[in-house]
Amino acid sequence: MILIVSTEDDKSTSDVIDWLAKFKQKFIRINSEDKINIIEAKLSEEVKSFIFKVKNRIYDLSEIKTVWFRRSNYNLEYYKYDGTNDHNLNQQITTQLFSEMNVLSEYFISELNKKSLNKPEDVYLNKLKVLEKCTEYEIKIPKSIITSDKKTLLKFRLECREVISKNITQG
Q1: DSSP string of 4-66?
Q2: What count of other Cβ atoms lies within 10 Å of the Cβ of residue 52?
């Protein structure tokens, strides 16, 4: 399964998803406003598993084979504790939970990054390198051509029928 991290209004992400659907690729899309709730982490010699929930659906990180960070960032859910009548105690517990969640989140994101085509820090991507990386991860990509020759372009259009013109620069 492919995990796509984007924003809800990003048309390019929707276009890629259309291609993934056409090629019957399994994927999940997480948008910037979607909270990621880490439910469980198991670590042992035999097992490494992260169970997380997004939009009321539960996933196991092991199901994710590739991550494409398109836009936005991971929106991990943190908890505020208010289980006692003692405000100071609640604050201390919340602070401890926050610290623990930071460590867990950092590890979760590092595991995602191991499977990622790119990372949130990658502001400017070389789109050609991304296409190449997709082929390394066995993600199907459309036939692509970069040419300044009109005859080559017309021949390509006849072969493929559907052609999308897209900048290779950012934007």
Answers
A1: EEE-TT-HHHHHHHHHHHHTT--EEEEETTPPBEEEEEEESSS-EEEEEEETTEEEEGGG--E
A2: 21
Tokens in use for 31?
Answer: 């948008």
Phi (first) and psi of residue 54, to 5 degrees? -140, 130
Per-residue CA distances from 15 to 1, 22, 143 (Å)? 18, 11, 15
Q: Are strands 27-31 and 2-6 parallel, antiparallel or unpaired?
A: parallel
Q: CA 103 to CA 100: how far, in whole Å?
A: 5
- Whole-number mean pLDDT of the chain? 89
In the numeric block, the tokens 């992400």 are attached to 13
Rounded to whole angstroms, how far apart are CA atoms 37 and 44? Answer: 22
Collapse the DSSP code of 156 into the 3-class scheme (helix H, G, I; strand E, B; otherwise coil) and give the result: helix
Q: Tell me the C-alpha distance between 37 and 141, whole Å.
A: 31
Q: How would residue 154 be classed by pLDDT, with cut points 50, 70 and 90?
A: very high
pLDDT band, very low/low/confident/very high, at 66 (cuts 50, 70, 90): very high
The length of the chain in residues reads 171
Q: How far is 78 from 116, CA to CA, in rounded Å?
A: 23
At position 131, the amino acid (one-letter code) is: L
The rounded distance, in Å, linking the Cα atoms of 27 and 100 is 29
Strand, helix or coil at 98? Answer: helix
